Structure formats: C-alpha cells, structure tokens
Amino acid sequence: MIKKQFVLMVSFTGFFAMMSGCQTTNEKVSNSIASELNKRSITLDLRETELDKRALALKIEQENFLEGAVNWRSILCDPKRANSHVLEIQSTLKSNGFNPGKVDGFIGKSTMRAVKKFQKAYGLPVDSYINIETLKALGISAVPEN
C-alpha cells in the first residue's frame, strides 16, 4: 500500500511539474501573442490616424475646389493688353518688391510669377490671371488709359 501511494504521489508530482512547465510555456506563448497583437494594434492605430489626416486633407481640398468652382472673379481678358497698361502693372509690381523680370509691356512667366507672389502676400485670390482685385490692390485702373 505504501508502494502504491508513493508511485501515485510521484505520478501526481510529475504530472503537476509537467503541467506547471506547460503553464510556463503557455504563459510565454500567450505573452508573445499578446505582445504581437499589441504591436499590430498600435500599427493599426497609426494607420488609422494617417488615414484620418489624409481624409481631412482631401475634404479640405474638395471644399476648396468646390469653393473655387463657384467663386467668380473679374479678370483682364485680353492677355495682349495695351503695352502702357502692362508697363504700369510691371512697374508697380517692381516698386512694391515683386520682380516681374524685364519691364517690357508684355505679360510673360516672370510677370505672372510676380503677380502670384503679390496676390499671395496680400491675401488675394491666387490664380493664373491678373484679376481686377489685384489691379485695385496695386492701385491701377482696370481700364487702360490710351
């Protein structure tokens, strides 16, 4: 009877030791899985934040586009304006610190670059045209004097 109890006791002890070893291994595996899931969760959170930023930027861009689509402005329609009028625009830009390039009476890339910089600096609509608001800000009449 003592022999059976001893064997049984050794068997239970071995079983518990084996189970506790499994438990330790299971805890390690569980901790490893939990750590990996935590990393993935953080990665997903970062991606979600990035997508939220992109969605907001697209929404703002869409609003700006729609606003621009219905925002009418008067512009100078004739790009080949009277040379004296263009000379006045170029001279005024230059005297205000916006280099229009050669002051030659022709609206070229340099003149338009200076116009856009002026528009931006004065909070005017920035576009590919010399609009009436820009002329007013420059103190120039929209109608050339001939």
UniProtKB/TrEMBL annotation:
Question: What InterPro entries does UniProt report for this protein, alphabetically?
Answer: Peptidoglycan-bd-like (IPR002477), PGBD-like_sf (IPR036365), PGBDSf (IPR036366)
Entries under Gene3D superfamilies matching the protein? PGBD-like superfamily/PGBD (1.10.101.10)
Could you tell me which residue ranges the Peptidoglycan binding-like domain spans? Answer: 85-138
Cleavable signal peptide = none
Protein name as catalogued:
Peptidoglycan binding-like domain-containing protein
Q: Which organism is it from?
A: hydrothermal vent metagenome
